[in-house]
Amino acid sequence: MATGGEQAQEMEVPTLVLEVLSPGSIVQSVAGRDSGNLYLVIAQLDDRFVLIVDGQTRRVANPKKKNIKHLKLLGSLEKEQCSVLSDPKKIADAAIRQFLQAFCEKKEVDASACPNRM
Amino acid sequence: MITLKSDQELKLMREAGKIVMRALLEVKERVRPGISTVELDRVAAKCIRKSGGIAAFKGYRGFPATICASINEQVVHGIPSVRRLSEGDIISVDVGVLKGGYYADAAMTFPVGKVSETARLLMEVTRIALEKGIEQAQEGNYLGDISHAIQTYVEKHGFFVVREYVGHGIGKQMHEEPQVPNFGTPKTGPVLRPGMTLAIEPMVNAGTSDVELLGDGWTVVTKDGSLSAHFEHTVAITDEGPIVLTACSE
After folding, report:
1. Residue A56 has pLDDT above 80, yes or no
2. Sheet holding B74-76, edge to edge
3. Domain assignment present for A118
4. Which residues of B touch A6 (CB under 8 A)?
5. Helix, strand or coil for residue A15?
6. What percentage of chain A has pLDDT greater than the value 70?
7. Is the model more confident about A71 or about B145?
8. CA atoms within 13 A on the CB side of B219
9. pLDDT at A81
10. Which domain, by its residues, includes B41?
């Protein structure tokens, strides 16, 4: 990876308005070692944290707690898909992978954000 | 400060270098019309993980992927996407790996199917320019000798080196001192000493040397839309001459 040019400038981390992040939101991590990855929000813990899953490295049984400041909202699930979130414990990891994959294909999301990477 | 590496450290960098090249060769095998660059990214990620390395680019200043995949007019740092390769494209793939605390970094440009004569020549000139640079990576030479060798070979063939992005020292960090430009004057800059490790990486444009950065904050493209090629190796300077740490052979 070459160095120099404008790349040297620090990257700006976008922040979010709280109201828009709710279970069913599809988000991209913008900070941390998982930066760039795509997740589904399955629960809102308080005004700062949400639980996110990708059905693969972060499964429903072991969701990731993430500061909403470190997430970028990309979109949300369709209404009928949201209904499965009424009981987050019952939602299948496979379904989450499928949602995120479908979302990726529809929206030309960057790179490794897509699930099933690696 | 330029850090000199011990033989033991060079061995560790060679281990990282082998993984880099393994990943590049696996990607090369998959390059064909119709494949998306995200798929290529996954191939590299899987290969690096299986080999026990860590993808060095992912998360670096927020870069979201394992490889940089730069198509046609994209010079470097292209972000893999769902864009599919077409017959006649050229794609530059840059891979970095961290293993045992040390980094290695290499890049290659591949043709997709049958490419134009200009594209073929551009890739060939860039690859040989890198070899010319590596030949100058000898103890007692100057950094400017490497830069000058690359520049003269490229310009002799009517192409242009990118000036805004440069190669770099590499080791415990992905980017260390010194910077390694692809243009320069012989007998200038730091004297090369055994233990120095450099990522030498000519980025060569067909049209002009001017480049610009796209809105994604990463992808660098040629200003005139002309093709660009990129080859890179991590090279160690030793008293027995340059050693390519990212070479194919075991």
Report:
1. yes
2. B74-76, B220-222, B211-213
3. no
4. 213
5. coil
6. 64
7. B145
8. 21
9. 65
10. 7-244
Indicate the helix (H) or strand (E) that contains B109.
strand B102-111
Question: Which amino acid is located at B2 in the chain?
Answer: I
Q: Which residues of A touch B (CB under 8 A)?
A: 1-7, 10-11, 30-36, 104-105, 108-114, 116-118
Closest residue by Cα to residue B83 from B53, B28, B40 = B40
**In the predicted model, what is the mean pLDDT of chain A?**
72
Report the residue of chain B nearest A34, measured CA to CA: B59
Q: What's the ipTM?
A: 0.70
The three-state secondary structure class of B224 is: coil
Q: CA–CA separation, B15 vs B18, rounded Å?
A: 5
pLDDT reported for residue A116: 35
CB contact under 8 A, B165 and A110: no
Question: Residue B134 sits in a domain of what CATH number?
Answer: 3.90.230.10
Find, in chain A, the residue whose alpha carbon is nearest to that of B75.
A2
The span from the CA of B182 to the CA of B154, in Å, is 10
Structural domain tally of chain B? 1
Among all residues of chain A, which has the CA nearest to that of B107? Answer: A1
Is the pLDDT confidence value at A7 over 70?
no
**DSSP secondary structure letter of residue B126:** H
Domain that holds residue A58: 16-108
When comparing pLDDT for A1 and B129, which is higher? B129
Contacting residues of B for A11, CB less than 8 Å apart:
61-62, 217
Q: Which of B83, B166, B217 sits opposite A2 (nearest CB)?
A: B166
Q: State pTM to two decimals.
A: 0.70
Predicted confidence (pLDDT) at residue A114 exceeds the cutoff of 50 = no
Q: What is the pLDDT of residue A30?
A: 86
